[in-house]
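Researcher: Predict the fold of TRAP transporter solute receptor, TAXI family protein.
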Amino acid sequence: MNSSLRHLCVALTASLLIPASAFAGDRSDWPDNFTVGTASQGGTYFAYGSGWAHFVAENLGVSGGAEVTGGPVQNMALVHAGELGFGLVTLGPAREAIAGESPLAPGVKMDNVCAMFPMYQTPFSITVLADSGIKSISDIPDGARIGFGPAGSTSDSYFPRMMETLGVKFKRRNGSWSDLGGQLQDGLIDVVAFAAGIPIPAVSQLEVQSSINILEFNPDELKKVVDAFPVAPFTIPQSTYRSLSADSQAVSMWNFAATNCDMPESFVYEITKLTMENNDKMVSIHKAARSTVPENYDKNTVLPWHPGAARWFNENGYTIDANMIK
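Model: Structure tokens for TRAP transporter solute receptor, TAXI family protein follow.
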């Protein structure tokens, strides 16, 4: 490693460290290590989850890291089964998994997954190459090859149904966001339907290398999708991507960090405290973490709260009813 890179790594680590004295207490039941389920490389989950795992590990002195997964649907299954201690989940797939409607295990109620803290909203947005001539959703031609992200991801679970609701006839493709971005550039697919926190690394990379159009939902399309799916209107600010000449209308779904409900209470309490009380550190990991603030705790109406997380929120003026705590 050259000296400048070494200095950068040291500076980044130092910028994420909190005084160790802030985390005193009994750790006898804490795990020796932990793993966070994220999603594919090139997406926001992986960038956010990897950085957050490093932040927690460095500050709490427990070895931890991120794992590439298929996204929220798989994360719910892995956390429920105890194969991963933590996972990043979107509330739509979480609701289906709790109800026993996960496509990975139909009939299995994944009810051993608990909420920790709000992350950010996942906008659903559509990207094409500018030279495709596609400027709106209605311009997408019949039979277009659309990349919907990794199989079983939030995008793959909902975006195809949204496109069908809007009358788009397509050929479905799956892959990591970075792979699909490359396929779009190479002409192997026509559209990428992204569902990830903004700015999406793969879109930022695409617009450096190509001229792209980011398609928005018109008022009629917006109403149809909001009426049919567990999403809400969302505005992508013009400043998010240099390809935007104005704010772009999209829809979104909330994401929460989740844990196996059997994780030690004091461990989850300290992780929640660390994350909720240091938003500046989280934003330095990923800009989407601007929404990783305690005020957004009430966006969770799906997952039961882990007792450790609920204790921090209740101690700090954010009321979580006892019937919402596992």
